[in-house]
Specification:
The structure is a homodimer.
Chain A lengths: L3 E2 L2 E2 H9 L15 E2 L2 E2 L6 E6 L5 H4 E6 L8 E10 L2 H8 L10 E2 L5 E7 L11 E4 L10 E5 L3 E4 L5 H6 L2 H12 L8 E4 L5 H12 L3 E6 L5 H11 L3 E4 L20 E4 L3 H10 L5 E4 L8 E3 L1 H5 L4 E4 L2 H6 L3 H16 L7 E5 L3 H8 L8 E5 L1
Parallel strand pairs in A: 13-14, 13-16, 14-15, 16-17, 17-19, 20-21
Antiparallel strand pairs in A: 1-2, 3-4, 5-6, 5-8, 7-9, 7-11, 7-21, 9-10, 10-12
Helix pairs in contact in A: 5-6
Chain lengths: 376, 376
């Protein structure tokens, strides 16, 4: 299905931009176009990260300008403030994601913006309000977005914009994984690998709030002691490197902590096996990523005698299952937690014009970097 | 915990048999022993397959004689009629099973017998009744068993004894796996590997009764066409060899059959991967065996994007979860199906005295063989 951008199909718009002599037509801001004999309410022109085909993101993406579009009576025109570059955004551009917009498409999936203007029938939103697309949707890497009012969820503007821009994909994944697979109560333990990831950091903090202990696995690295300290400051009960867990009697390392009933895996391969080894009898491991690009390997006896269950989690599928209302309630809950200072994670705001620098960092070409968030 | 045999601990009994000059004391049948000044109701002497230590079953098992034991007021003395040699019996003797009787122990876990005599307080059972230990319990490979009345479940004696002897471990596993993991209704499909196994054959027939299609995977072998014919006669909708499923477009092989929502794996390795590939989006694979002695390998995307769930099933654990009553009701249901001629599987009755021959076949030393059932 063709992705619609600000009221018209991207293909139609994009066609207009490239046909003829191929030059990019830049329309003046706030231009009002008279068409079919009446004055329409028009958006400002927009600037967006577009890719014409799936492929290496640093090769297939470029920033182009879009002309103003009409703001219909139920539409809201949002001036985007910030939007992150998540691994799933990169995967969509690479074409390795099973659900992806038809190309040409605009990048990005979540973000926050400020209402710029509204259609004549819109009552609940006013210029200046902060909104996020909720459930998130394609095409947040652009300066102005016009979409139907139901797309937008109004939020408080008392938290830093980079948190509002990033609250959906990673913190919500962490919250849902903690809630949807096992009935956890205070005193339980969970175990996770990839604990330094943004979801990993959220899991630690959201577990802590509920009195749930977290046992965390990180890669072996030179600065592992600093990483351990950082995660413990967030609330991690234990942090082990994969090497430390090579011990035969892995359970002895848990000390007084109860054996975890739930595990999260975003790495795969041997690191997933460590999660499985640490789980208690009857526990569940949820896979939500595969950073090591290696499959999960499970012994027969883990299934039969240890009664482990293995599941997967994909936020986009959860979203598509009629969870829009529930999603917004959980987002509000997360925003409250952020406002209270109980949910923090490292980010770096990068001016939109420096998109290629941010992308380079997000692609991992400059070593370990904080989450890159575009500032429009 | 010490396994109790006919009222006294096996260790105590067995000690009596081997101390002194080490000869085996054989007591005359129907002997009545006077002890502590009163005449007790005694069992006949018994002959049992015993193993002194875990190890290769053909090396550690031997048949020995046990003296009569007292039949207390709530006890029932059962003359065993038949008991199978299941793979799990072999695994228990080998010591590779996580729950196993303390050695020395008597082999076997299920079987059928005829009530020989009852204690003074037993009203519900009479000599001649057919009974099975339900839930099953250790030590069915012996000619006479004395256990408390609650152990025994009275069944109809209108079906062949070899079916009564084998109804619990394999058919019940098949029935529970079809019922406990997904809500299947008429028109659904399931997929399984190891389809020629006894559980596999039961799955085909029990699915058929409920209008559920079965897609079956067998090893590549010379006589694969005959095997396919045999399974189709039982009710299999499709039977593929592993080699045939190497095709790229595996789903095309299903023709008009719906993609299976549930899969059963008793093999592991590549054969388990075929089950996973055939499952539909959101499907579940249940592992209940690992004949290939290879782990199950699962891609990250199978969990995240295909939303597969992987579980395990172990009858012994299910039994231990307070399911005694439910178990007996299901056994009765299965016995009715057997009586109606709708559940069949290949078996070979072997005289108890030829235990070593039956064991050799059960160990797979003579190629593919029907289920070996000891006849006492």
């Amino acid at each position: 299905m063709m992705e619609r951008v600000r009221g018209v199909t991207l293909r139609a718009l994009y066609g207009r931009l490239t046909i003829g002599n191929g030059c990019r037509r830049v329309f003046p801001r706030y231009q009002t176009v008279s068409s079919r004999g009446f004055n329409a309410n028009m958006s400002p022109p927009s600037k967006a990260v577009v890719y014409d085909q799936q492929g290496p993101p640093d090769q297939v993406t470029r920033i182009i300008n879009f002309p103003p579009v009409e703001i219909k009576e139920n539409d809201v025109c949002v001036k985007m403030l910030a939007a992150p570059i998540n691994p799933s955004d990169i995967n969509r551009i690479q074409g390795v994601y099973p659900v992806r917009p038809t190309v040409p498409a605009i990048g990005g999936y979540e973000g926050v913006g400020e209402v710029h203007s509204v259609g004549s029938a819109v009552r609940d939103l006013s210029p200046g309000d902060w909104v996020i697309p909720s459930p998130p949707s394609f095409g947040t890497w652009q300066t102005y977005i016009v979409k139907e009012k139901s797309v937008w969820h109004k939020i408080n503007n008392v938290i830093p914009m980079e948190y509002a821009a990033t609250v959906t994909v990673n913190p919500l994944t962490a919250l849902l994984m903690l809630e949807d697979f096992e009935k956890l109560t205070s005193g339980h333990s969970i175990v996770q690998n990839g604990a330094t990831s943004m979801v990993g950091q959220c899991v630690i903090q959201l577990a802590k709030i509920q009195g749930i202990h977290s046992i965390n696995i990180i890669r072996d690295r030179v600065e592992s002691e600093e990483v351990k300290e950082r995660l413990k400051k967030l609330g991690a009960d234990e942090v082990f490197t994969e090497g430390e867990l090579g011990a035969k009697n892995i359970k002895a390392l848990l000390g007084a902590l109860p054996e975890p009933v739930l595990g999260f895996n975003c790495v795969g391969g041997d690191s997933a096996s460590l999660v499985l080894r640490l789980l208690r009898q009857g526990g569940t491991m949820v896979t939500y990523g595969g950073m090591a690009r290696k499959p999960v390997t499970v012994s027969t006896s883990s299934f039969i005698f240890k009664d482990l269950a293995l599941r997967g989690f994909w936020l986009q599928k959860w979203m598509s299952a009629g969870k829009a209302k529930e999603c917004r309630a959980m987002i509000d809950q997360l925003l409250d937690i952020i406002q209270e200072g109980k949910l923090k994670y490292e980010m770096q705001l990068v001016p939109f014009d420096e998109f290629s620098v941010a992308l380079d960092k997000a692609l991992g070409n400059q070593g370990s970097q904080p989450k890159q968030v575009l500032k429009f």
